[in-house]
Write a structure and sequence with these properties.
Radius of gyration: 19 Å
Number of helices: 3
Largest sheet: 2 strands, antiparallel
Shape: elongated
Distance between the termini: 44 Å
Structural class: mainly alpha
Number of domains: 1
Low-confidence stretches: 81-102
Strand order of the largest sheet: 1-2
Order of helices and strands: HHHEE
Helix content: 40-55%
Number of strands: 2
Length: 102
């Protein structure tokens, strides 16, 4: 199925309105912007995590990875689903004492 750009935009807009429900658009911004910010932080952390793994592989430590991370994500916050081992998703987390400046 091929969609024209206009039709795609109309469908996405309708889907967003359906999800938003009866909330006024002005009141919706305080919900959307924090979610977009969290998405950016999460994607940035995952990208930097992959860079650290590419550079260090199995030799990576929490201290080394902290040099790659510009954010310290609090313990218990889901960031990225890592690889799967025996049906369990694992993800490395940044070292709590370090963060990269930049």
């Amino acid at each position: 199925m091929n969609l024209a750009q206009q039709e795609l935009e109309e469908r996405l807009w309708a889907a967003a309105n359906a999800l938003r429900g009866p909330v006024d658009p002005a009141d919706f911004k305080p919900y959307v912007f924090p979610m977009l910010f969290w998405k950016w932080i999460s994607d940035t952390w995952a990208y930097e995590h992959r860079q650290a793994l590419d550079d260090w592989g199995d030799d990576i430590t929490d201290e080394i990875e902290a040099d790659y991370q510009r954010f310290t994500v609090p313990e218990g916050c889901p960031v990225e689903r890592g690889h799967q081992e025996d049906g369990v998703h694992t993800a490395r987390r940044p070292h709590p004492q370090g963060s990269r400046q930049g």
